[in-house]
Amino acid sequence: MNLLPLLVVFPMFMAIVLNFLHGKDKLIKYSSIALAIILMTLPFIPNYGYYFFGNHGLVEAMTSGIAYLFNPAKQLILIVLTLIASLTLISSAGEKQSGLVTSLVLMGLASVTAVVLSEDLFNMYVFYEITAISQTGLLLATGTENSYKSALRYLIMGNFAGSILLLGIGLLLSITGTLFIPEIHANLLANPTNPVIYGGALMLIIGLCYGSGLPPFHTIKSEVYAGAKPFISAVLQTFSKFVLVALMLLLFKLFYGLPLFANLQVLLIVISILGMVFGVVMALLQTDYRKLLSYHAISQGGYVAAGLALGTPLGFVAGIFHAINHVIYKSALFLGAHIVSNENKTSKLDKMGNLLPVMPFVAFMVLCAKLAISGVPPFNGFQSKLLLAEASINANLPELTVIMILVSIGTFVSMMKAFYMIYLKPNGLKDLEELKKDYNNPMLKYPKFSLLILTILCIILGIFPEIITNTLYNSFDNFLSTL
């Protein structure tokens, strides 16, 4: 029985159903928790292999219809994606607008799942756009003036980038006559010098940068993360990271083996370096904690792109492993920021402080996540950054390793400064007993639970990275030779 569509159809259907329950917070709360449990089982149900839908068949010797590919690496990505979405649903259980947020999280989950699974360009494009719409909706759900402004700017830029991406797909369709990715690659290899290929590749890269927040779209993407409620930002940045992975792999599936591919790799590595450097420099300059975390999300996206752009088996493993680790510890940091923001009613670092005696366990969990993103052992970020460094050295790019190390140092400095400002610095603005009273807000038990799960994962994957890497090594050892 073909059950793979459940991964896309079920969350999309529930998004529609729950939208009608908007305002019934109690019902939404219990539904969200039940859904979170059900969603976690979905990636384990389908069998591996190609799946074809929508009157799929051969038309004039070309494949038509919707095509999905499900394999162990994609299953791993979808497990982590579903986990973060489920923890976001649980964290939203105490929020007044949980009905709207729940629906949009489910819509985003369904669309990113489809982007990851797609083996045909048009289906991938449709769900890429739905992902952008759900991200905009989640930003609007925050309901502040800044979030409205950021959402409008994101939509305007999205119209531009989405149109460029669609035009690139149209160019490739015009010279190959198909949207099925393996057939496009085979056709391009048969006529590798066609100048239209260059235009198509460049337009796909623009779509990649917009969807993932890499330069030149890093500022608008960081505004999206910073403008949303922090627990929502956790899933927003997760969507972006897995769209980044899916589109980077798409570029290899389409253009590997063509004369332009070497130049394409150089361009991707340059963009990834710019993402790493711009992200960490901007983070160091921030006085707002949410903006600081948002720019670090951009910087870590640069690491993921750099690993994948190397185009070696170890580079693929390191890049995807870092994407998985990043969404885990970055989600933990955003959830920690959500708890702290609720406590202080602000995210300005100079108005925070002295929270360690108020919430010592939360401070410990946030410190673990900060050490993970900084690449400090024994946390998961250390393991993936070590693999990234090894992959870049093996690819004869020691300069890239040096840049990664310098960016990690900047990340560590920024994170430790924020930790001091929030948890250790004396705060004369609020009485300690008043802070403790706010901390006992029952709605915070949901994000605290999610934060605990993510912190445990940071430690487990730091000590036992093979839980993830063994599957990735098996999937990407011969990836390029199969193209």
From TrEMBL:
Residues 118-406 form the NADH:quinone oxidoreductase/Mrp antiporter transmembrane domain. Its main location: membrane. It comes from the Archaea. GO terms for cellular component: plasma membrane. Keywords: Cell membrane, Membrane, Transmembrane, Transmembrane helix, Ubiquinone. InterPro entries: CPA3_Na-H_Antiporter_D, ND/Mrp_TM. It is a multi-pass membrane protein. It is found in: Cell membrane. The chain crosses the membrane at residues 6-21, 33-53, 73-93, 100-118, 154-176, 196-217, 238-258, 264-285, 361-380, 400-420, 451-473. This is NADH/Ubiquinone/plastoquinone (Complex I). It comes from Methanococcus voltae (strain ATCC BAA-1334 / A3).
